[in-house]
Design brief:
By secondary structure, the protein is mostly beta strands. 0% of the residues lie in helices and 34% in strands. It contains no helices and 8 strands. The protein is rod-shaped.
Length: 130
């Protein structure tokens, strides 16, 4: 921390000096476990009323959320001005169905079932999966 002292020295010798100090502290990051993420539906977005009202160090503050297109930005503003805002985003992407050429079918014997190891590990859109 840096300390600055301000002193007023009167020209009238019957008056005493006046001094005050200002301490400059380094800004401190607020700490949460929230991270940028993605969800498939707006109903999965976090509600600001359910977010922690204090960071991991016990610093209190308030949450606000803003939206630009499909990106929701959550901002924690600490009440202590020496602490930095904390921001995380949640992107909403619509659910998309995986597409394959496989169709429902019937077989006469369990030996006619396809082996899982022979099934595609990517859908027709190039999405990997198991």
């Amino acid at each position: 921390d840096d300390v600055y002292t301000y002193t007023f020295t009167p020209t009238d010798t019957c008056y005493n000096e006046f001094s005050f100090t200002v301490t400059v502290s380094d800004s401190v990051d607020t700490v949460f476990t929230y991270t940028d993420s993605a969800v498939c539906d707006v109903t999965e977005l976090p509600d600001v009323s359910t977010l922690d009202s204090q960071d991991n160090n016990g610093v209190a503050g308030t949450w606000a959320v803003s939206q630009v297109d499909d990106i929701y930005t959550y901002t924690f503003t600490p009440t202590d001005t020496c602490y930095n805002e904390f921001i995380f985003t949640v992107t909403v992407s619509e659910s998309v169905d995986a597409v394959f050429t496989y169709t429902d079918s019937a077989v006469c014997d369990v030996t006619e079932l396809p082996e899982v190891s022979t099934l595609d590990s990517q859908d027709n859109n190039g999405v990997d999966g198991t």
